[in-house]
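R.M. (postdoc): so does anyone remember the format we settled on? I'll just put the structure tokens first.
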């Protein structure tokens, strides 16, 4: 059985080998080539800076998604994304309607502390996070006590399913690393409430 890796205030279930090595290799190559990756500027403390990774937003119809001062219009699902979405939905209990994709080119790319609690996601959002390529450490930090942290290595082909109060009680991040690392693709599937 896959256990909750959070000690309280939310649920995060980790499935280390959700996709086979063969599937992971195939999807990494497909997504690297077919996704319309962009490097977007974001506004942090009133300043415009480039995000330290590439991103893309895919989903149903023309769902729009806003965060950190940018609004992204969804590209239509590709065949590979629909296959991946179907496979994770078998254990997730929801139908995902959109996905934010992140491409970490090397160890210097990262994602800062944040919560996925945008109003479009409603209360207690379910977030399904799929990883292909290099292993990166994903960290949780309790919002009431920064010292309380939980780390999980998101390996090639792994799936992390977050639900319940997770996005209200914990921040998460992908820190930069110093040791050289290859590229990694992450897809966070979301349910957009209109
Ligand atoms: O790359 C990851 O594992 C995390 C991505 C993430 O937190 C997000 O897209 O909101
Ligand atoms: Mn996130």
């Amino acid at each position: 059985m896959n256990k909750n890796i959070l000690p309280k205030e939310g649920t995060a279930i980790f499935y280390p080998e959700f996709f086979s090595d063969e599937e992971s290799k195939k999807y990494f190559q497909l997504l690297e080539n077919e996704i319309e990756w962009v490097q977007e500027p974001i506004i942090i403390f009133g300043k415009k800076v480039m995000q330290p990774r590439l991103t893309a937003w895919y989903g149903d119809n023309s769902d729009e998604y806003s965060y950190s001062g940018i609004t992204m219009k969804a590209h239509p699902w590709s065949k590979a994304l629909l296959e991946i979405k179907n496979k994770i939905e078998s254990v997730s209990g929801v139908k995902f309607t959109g996905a934010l994709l992140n491409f970490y080119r090397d160890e210097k790319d990262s994602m800062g502390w944040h919560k996925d609690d945008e109003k479009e996601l409603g209360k207690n959002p379910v977030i399904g996070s799929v990883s292909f390529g290099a292993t990166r450490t994903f960290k949780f930090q309790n919002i009431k006590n920064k010292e309380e942290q939980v780390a999980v290595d998101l390996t090639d082909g792994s799936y992390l399913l977050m639900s319940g109060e997770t996005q209200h009680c914990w921040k998460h991040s992908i820190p930069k690393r110093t040791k050289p690392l290859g590229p990694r693709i992450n897809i966070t599937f979301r349910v957009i409430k209109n």
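R.M.: ...and that's the designed sequence above, right after the tokens. Also worth knowing: The chain has one domain: 11-190. The chain has a mean pLDDT of 94.
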